[in-house]
Design brief:
heterodimer; A: 130 residues; mainly alpha; elongated; B: 134 residues; 4 helices
Chain lengths: 130, 134
């Protein structure tokens, strides 16, 4: 390991390889990109729910089984939960100061939201191919 | 190793300031974001119920049309519109525009008005569509 005599980084910071912000700009960028996707998909979602609110089972089932609706619903669930995970991460980082609990929450969010997305996609595909 | 407690100065926080349009809307953006996560779990419930059985779907619709269910749906709808409109305000800020207090406040007021109107409009339109169907 080469030593930079002029560096003001502490040894622990060097070992961790992280700056004060812990990461670069990708969190910010992913949040913007997923917000743009969510913008269109959530408007489609609201519009769809307005037109199917309280529909009978068979009617709702065939609506979701329609390929365009199934694909858009899968995209909506993925982007919404991706955006939600990024937002929830920031909230946890801001308000939870116990390092151990914070890590559990941060990892938990990623695992739990990923699992929820898989469950949702499975349900949509079950209807689409059922 | 001795642990020395250093009294570092803290930046002034929420309790110091009078509530302002910018700060209140910022808090509301987070609050609606959290509400939307809860709402998303409602969407997941809807999807899983639909895939599971007719009985599960009928139960979901029953709950959705109880007063509490309707209140939750109204809250979900407002949260979505508010988060969406204020998200646009954030995206505009990202370009460097509307940063001065006057315009930030004006845009905030526009966000509140637009999201409220959209919520009421969508709710009434849905009721109107349902009244036609029955």
């Amino acid at each position: 390991m080469t030593q930079d005599k002029n560096s003001i980084q502490t040894p622990i910071a060097k070992v961790k390889g992280l700056g004060a912000a812990k990461n670069g700009t990708e969190h910010w960028l992913y949040q913007r990109i997923s917000s743009i996707a969510s913008f269109f998909l959530s408007l489609w979602f609201v519009w769809s729910m307005v037109h199917t609110a309280g529909a009978a089972y068979a009617e709702m089932y065939s609506w979701l089984a329609y390929p365009v609706n199934a694909v858009l619903m899968i995209l909506f669930v993925i982007t919404a939960f991706f955006h939600a995970a990024l937002g929830a991460q920031v909230i946890v980082e801001d308000y939870i100061h116990c390092e151990a609990f914070k890590m559990i929450k941060l990892i938990g969010i990623k695992l739990f939201y990923s699992a929820t997305v898989v469950v949702s996609i499975f349900a949509i595909l079950e209807v689409a191919f059922g | 190793m001795t642990k020395t407690k250093i009294d570092r100065p803290l930046s002034p926080h929420l309790s110091i300031y009078r509530p302002q349009m910018t700060s209140v809307l910022s808090i509301l953006h987070r609050a609606t974001g959290l509400a939307l996560i809860l709402g998303l779990y409602g969407v997941v419930w809807f999807l899983v119920a639909l895939a599971h059985s007719e009985a599960a779907y009928v139960f979901f619709v029953y709950v959705a049309f109880t007063p509490i269910g309707q209140l939750a749906l109204l809250g979900f709808l407002f949260s979505l519109y508010y988060h969406l409109c204020n998200g646009i305000r954030h995206l505009i800020w990202d370009t460097g525009l509307l940063f001065d207090i006057k315009n930030a406040t004006r845009a905030g007021l526009a966000v509140l008005l637009t999201s409220s109107l959209l919520t009421v409009g969508t709710w009434c339109y849905t009721m109107f569509l349902r009244s036609l169907a029955v």
